[in-house]
Amino acid sequence: MQTGLRFGAPQRGHKSLPGRWRVLALVLVAALLAGLVWTRLAYWQVVRHVDLAASAQAQYREVVELPALRGAIFDRNLKQLVVNTTVYSAFVSPDQVPDNQRARVALALATVLGADAPKVNEILASGKKFSYIARRFSKAKADQLRSMVLPGVGLEEEQQRAYLPGIAGSSLAANLLGFVNYDGQGQYGVEAHYQTQLAGTPGYISSYRDLANREIVLGSHTHQDPINGSDLVLSLDSNIQYAAEQALADGVKKANAESGSVLIMDPATGGIIAWADYPSYNANDFIHTDPAHFLDNISSSVYEPGSVMKVVTLSGAINAGAITPDMVINDPGFVYVGGYRIYDWDRRNHGNITYTYVLEHSLNVGAMKAMQAEGHANFYSYLQAFGLTKASGIDVAAEDTIPPPAAAKMADAQYATTAFGQGVDTNMVQMLAAINVVANGGKYAPPHVVERIGNNLNPVLLQPQRQVISPATALQMTQMMEQVVQHGSGWMSRVRGFELDQAGKTGTSQIPVNGKYTLDVWASYVGFLPALHPKFTMIVVMRKPHYPGYQQDWTLNDGYITAAPVWQKIAQQIVVDWRITPDTR
Amino acid sequence: MSSVARSQPDRHLLFVTVLLCGAGLVMVTSASVAFAYTQHESAFYYSLRQAAWMAIGFAALFVLSRFDYHKLRPLAPAAAAGALLLMILVLVPHLGVTVNGARRWFDAGPFGTFEPSELGKLAFALFIAHWIDRRGDRINDFQRGFLPYVAMLAGVLVLLMLQKDLGTSVVMVGIFVSAYWAGGGRMRHVVLMLAGLLLAFIALTIIEPYRFARLTSWRNPMADPLGAGFQSTQSIYGLASGGFFGVGIGHSVEKYGWLPEAHTDFIFAIIGEETGLIGTTLVMLGFLYFTWRGYRTSMRAPDRFGVTLAASITTWVAFQALLNMATVTNTLPVTGVPLPFFSYGGTALASTLAAVGVLLSIARKGTTRTNTHSRKGKDAPFDSWRRNRWAPVSGARRGTRASR
Q: Are A285 and A369 contained in the same domain?
């Protein structure tokens, strides 16, 4: 004990004892080390609690998902448009295939599933834990595989949507419905827009597992039943849809057009009766389809509506009291607006004519004069009221619009061209809903596809419809549009028996490319029937029709010759199918 | 004035021991049910055995606590020799049982296995205390004190390393070094001893690749959570899952096969999982209190034998507990020592309790701080941290109580 540092008594008892400070030092060391260990303890138990407990849970917990059944989609007559089917996928666990069984397994998989035998052999030799061999094949093949009792081969059930067939090469209403990808996500159309409601909420069974993957019986075990997706009832009529697709396909081919679309609406509710695009695609085979075909021309692309817009322009002017159908104006074949000279389509001097004549013969000068008569502000407010300045809100995914500039920012020339539907972009849903105001007694019916979601009505149906023009104006416009069919450009649309009882309007607008109008056109025809008690409003649009001999006369591509016949054909079918009779006079 | 013998046992020490053992039995039961059931189809296989060994241990504790520890001195050489013999015999194939590649147990029939090195801790603690006391101040002599002592330690360590028992080796180092230190060994000798052991440890680590791998997986156990880092990862998962309040006693998931050695070396992780930081902190405080009472016993021991023996027994329990907790918290690499009073293991529990019995016996003979010199202030600074050194009643009251 030579150390000077020495507490306590040097002589304790009869022998000298080591200093107590030595043991005290041990106490100190123990306390220090304990403090160190405790810091670590607090670090793991408090600081890292949340993230590491989550990792631990991920390790212990096994969550088996109970898939929710996706809702079905019905048309207005409760015909099912989409059916859920079970398909099968085959996988192998190569490490569980005995060497002497490999050849047999590979042969069986190759024979039944058409898999590439050398490739299957390669997978089997890899010693991997898991590999898919083929995905989404039929129950027949699955049963065949099952009966062969192959070691290490498993089957997995998956849900797949099956859509009704449409015309050759496509499924019915493919562009409206969209499809569901392999991850259960709705793509495009109604499937995408109503993804949440259709998909429902998957349930799960969650349990704790021990290291050997046995369930821990004492552990908490939770079970949540899936909530199946809601069924949708559409306003669509599958018969009419099919007829529309057929007529459209014929019409597009006949007019040599790039593409065409038909949209039919219930005038009173705004419910979509048919939504046809051509060319379309087969939603059952979306995996092998060029994604360009998925795009829908009705709501996801815009066009310049052309003379169809004159219905909106003249309706507004009549409603504002600026003009009447019988008012006489002079049409020299052109007017100067904002420094531009804007012509009628035929560049002819029409002399003194009425506004009914203007609509019948689709004269741009008359439309511009009507717009000028009511004034820019009135005109713009009617554009808004007819729903042409914002999206229609249709319940189909990816609606595209290009709203016009604000009223004050629109140039005089743009007001002038907008009056006859050029230099303004709308989608077909917006345009049809605007024309439908006339058919619906002056009220705007919000366009929609779905009437019922599960047990609930689409809220759109419960909203009051806004009055855009007076019923009297709507009647006057209807009569003017009847004249279009009887004396004017709509003669190609005449449905037998309804010649005096249908309203319509053609539209043709040149397609601008890099700011210059070309000879390519959007040709359209819109109309409703019977005129005074319409059962449907329909618009047909042809894109870039190249009617035989059009090079000499681009007006051959006009709506009256390319779109109106399609309209007529479909209308004829609806009349028969729905047993519509003309009004007796 | 010389010391006054106390006949009262240290009730605090006894109490904290009983408390730790009680908690230990509960936790062994909880941590072992799943393993016991899968291994032996009896959920209480391990807890019943642990309870039986605990009974034996407490019997030994009570006998030894009432037995004057001085009377153990003559037995010390024989006990140490016996322990050495058993530790050699256990290495003989067919006599010793191999578990996890290490041969360090005898088959003890219905009581499971018997681990001689656990008994060795007590035997060697007794022997070195005896040896140090007999050498007296000569232990400071390099040749006659230091070298023989180091040789003894080295011999024991070689035997333990042959059993591949790194954990017990480290604890044995703790016992030997603390005894040497508390018994009056020179600081530079202690430093020399520790430095030599560190060098030996480094050498052994480099030689054996599995030890080196253990070191790397200690640095980052999550890097290989399914391989080398599995046990540490699971241990940390257990602690982290427990959080502050724990998942509740009996609700551990780690004990279902995830955490290897959940009821033995890694029981502290299950404590952490089921009772949270609150539980682990209480256990640590229990051990700290035990440590304090143990060292206090050493400081009050009437002779060098008692001082040394009490210090080494306390160090044994405290150091082993710390090592265990450090392993579980991944503060140190996995060494493989049981948590005293908690981990399943009969021999260890019984011999630890027997050692506590010896500690209690030393406490019974413990002196008060009172003597003529210490009353005069300067020589009694030791009292100062406990109470007001100028308090006049201090010594008097203690004297009165002691003579009662």
A: yes
